[in-house]
Structure formats: structure tokens, C-alpha cells
Amino acid sequence: MNGLPLDPAPADMRAMGEAVVEYLVGFIGGLDDAPAAATEGATELASELRQPPPEHGGGFDALLGDVRDAIAHTFEYAGPGYLAYIPGGGLYSAALADFIAQGVNRYVGLWMPSPAVVQLEENVTRWLCELYGMGDRSQGVLTSGGSTANLSAVVTARHAKLGDDFTDGTYYVSEQAHASVTKAATIAGFSRKNVRIVPTDAELRMDPAALGDMIAEDRAAGMHPFLVVPSAGTTNTGAIDPLDEIADVAAGQELWLHVDAAYGGFFQLTERGKERFAGIERADSVTVDPHKGLFLPYGTGALVVRDGAALRDAHYEGAAYLQDLPPSGELPNYSEYSTELSRDWRGLRVWMPLKLHGVAAFREALDEKLDLAEELDVAFRADPNLELPWATQLTVTPFRLRDGDDAANEELLRRINASKRVFLSSTRVHGRFTLRVCIVSHRTHRDRIDECIAIVRDATRSLRGTG
Ligand SMILES: Cc1ncc(COP(=O)(O)O)c(C=O)c1O
């Protein structure tokens, strides 16, 4: 038999580890100059890599070569020019935390086998609970992302407000809500018809008066309104629903208030964010994604719930084979509060960067993103070839070619992305093709946004034949 033993010799472990560190240091160092997207030949490469695992293993260097090649043929998610969808980041400190967490493979689903390990993760969820004013009885869980956090929130609200007989339950989202909130309906046992789509105002924010009317109509029709899900920053345009007014409606109607802050949530660390999210501290639960606003690797979401017992009631299932392990006490058994039993120790990849860099570093980076978005908004508004139908409420700036049809806007996107210095994405709002810039990455700074402004200006001029 050849190939590496399952536990390699110390020298081999060291050599492989050093090769990986060397690669990552070079990778991160090269991000400023890397193309914002490099997908030419990527599907051909994918076909070449299509193969089952070998019976006998091969050398690490060759494998690392394949991995590096696959990574080099992608969108540059981690780079400063990635302004599409909701950018992430990828902190080196989080990669190190993951390396440790995977290497030691400690279990965090139940507290008793590793209380101090769970405590480090619990420090993160307590901090998140405090960030949104969730109070002493609250509980948080780290999830794989915002979608699973939203699902758990819907299930928790359903369980707390409706019990087992929930088929008449209705919940309320704006037409701009993230798909995961409506998708949660079917997974949580509702018909999609039970999700009510509340109209928005001119700035694409949920209309609280319309919400109140819809709830009243549903009650009159014998339905059971139980939940409203406003967004603290929509994915499409960054719109912030009027959280305080919606909280008034929710309180008056005894609805569960879940705020989807997956994208925008960490702007709460900044003064401007706190002001714009006024009312979020009245929520029953909040979804927030550290793999967005804390620049962490994908696979790191969070849900915080004011009434921790309600979260547990909705997710707890006893099991005889776990009888040796005590229930939640001083520390939580996360498996009692979430959909997962076995999972990675994702808390370490949040805790370690927070401790190492300090909260101020994240606050400053997020403040910088707000500044950059304002700069971009002003520059785009000054461009006679562009129209900005909506205000930049956080760090998403939606825009279109003035008087351009969908095909012209699609062509504009193609030309911008052909620059390879920035990579934008598009959406549809009220049926119309709309481009958007989304600034989240800690690696995006003024130089790249100035470049983005120039690229967009040149692309519109060349499209209009005026440049
Ligand atoms: C507002 C909002 N909610 C939910 C999600 C889903 O989060 P995830 O992709 O982490 O599942 C996103 C993702 O972009 C989002 O922007």
C-alpha cells in the first residue's frame, strides 16, 4: 500500500502545514492584483477534475496543486473587487481557528464533555445577544448561515405562538424579503399561501400601515397571524424596514417579531447602523451572519432569541443514548436549541478573530464601508448616464442606465465585469433589471471604489457611444 498514513509522521504533518500556510499567505497577499472573477475554462477544469477517489492515495503537493487550480478559476470572493451578491471576506485568523478546531475535533453540541470549549462559543452568542438588547433570558446559536437561522426563527415563532395546530397561521414579510424567509414556510410545514407579502413604500421598505390592514383582514377571515419578519438591510437594495413602527404593530397584535439582519446586522456596531436600526432591540429574535458583516468564512450564521426557553422548546428532542450527559444548565447544550447535533466548532472562528483584532477593528471596517457606499452613491448620482431609483440605505447601491432597457443594462453589467477589477451582480426590482454594488468586504477600500466608479462611468459612456 502506498499513500499517506491516516496519521502522518510529524515531519510530514509539518511539511504539509507549512505548504498550506505558504499558499495562504501568498493567496491573501495577491488578492489586490487578482482578477475579480476568473471563470474562463472553469467548467472544463471541473470536468477534468471529475473522478472518484483512488484506492491508494497520492502525494500532497500534487493535490494542493489541483486545489489551487480549482480555486484560481472562480469569482474572487475574498478580494477587494468582489462587490456582488453579499460579499464575505475570509480572515486569516478565522482560517487558523478552523485549522485548530478541525484538528482537535472538539464537540460542542453538548456542554458537559467540553465546558470551556463551549464557553468560548457561548462568549460569542452572549455578545451577539447583548448587541441586539436581547436581555438575560436570551439564547443564541451559531448556525451554518442566515437561511438556517431564519428557518429556526420561523419554527420557534410558530411553536411559541401557535403550538401544534398551526395550519391557519400566517406570517408577514415584505416583497423584498430574502428568499430564505419565504422558503422557511414550506420547510416549517406551512403552505406558501400562509406567507403574506406586505407592500413597500417608495424606498422599498415594508409599509407598517399595510401590514396592520393585512393582519386585520386575515384575523377577520379566521386565520392566525403570528409572525412578522422585517429586514435590517434587504439583499436586493439594502432597504431597512421601519423596525420601530413594525415593532409597534407586532406588539399591538401579539405577533412574534423576527428581524432578518443577515446582511446588515453587524452595522449595529456603528453609530449610523444603530440609528438606522432603531427598534431592533424590541425584536423577539434576530438573524445575523458573521460570514457577512464580520468577514468570516462561509458557514457562520447566528440566531439570537429573547426568550431562550422558546428556542429550546421548539428544538428540543430527548434521546436515551444521550442520558449520560446532563441537560443545559450554566452552559447550553446547543443541540437542544438548534437543528444540529454534531457540527463543527464554529464558535472558535468567531471568538478568535474578535479577541485577536478587537471589536473596534470590525467597527472601523464597517464604518469605512458605510463611507464608501455614500461616496459611491454621490458619484453615481452625479453621472448623467445613470439613474438611482432608491437611496443607498446601507452599503448596497442599486442603479440602472438612464433610459436603458433590460438588454442595455445587462450589457452594462457585462462590460463592467469584463474589467476584472470589480465584479457586480444584478437583480430585478418590480420586474426591471437592476445592477447593484454591495460593499462589505474588509478588503474593499477607497482606491477600489474609486476604480469602480471610473469603470462604471467608462462602461456607460462606451455603451452610449459618448466615450
Ligand atoms: C437579508 C438576508 N437574509 C438571509 C440571507 C441568507 O443567508 P445565508 O446565505 O447565510 O444562508 C441572506 C444572504 O445573502 C441575506 O442577505
Describe this structure in words.
- The protein has 467 residues and is an alpha/beta fold.
- Helix content is 43%, strand content 12%.
- It has 16 helices and eleven strands.
- The chain has helices at 10-29, 42-48, 60-72, 92-104, 115-131, 146-162, 179-187, 208-220, 243-253, 271-276, 290-293, 308-315, 348-357, 359-381, 406-418, 446-464, and strands at 139-143, 169-174, 195-198, 224-229, 256-261, 285-288, 301-305, 386-387, 396-401, 425-429, 432-438.
- The strands form two sheets. It has a seven-stranded mixed beta sheet with strand order 1-7-6-5-4-2-3, with helices on both faces. Strands 8-9-11-10 form a four-stranded antiparallel beta sheet.
- Helix 6 (146-162) packs across helix 12.
- 44% of the residues are buried.
- Bound molecules: pyridoxal-5'-phosphate (PLP).
- The site of pyridoxal-5'-phosphate has 15 residues, from helix 6.
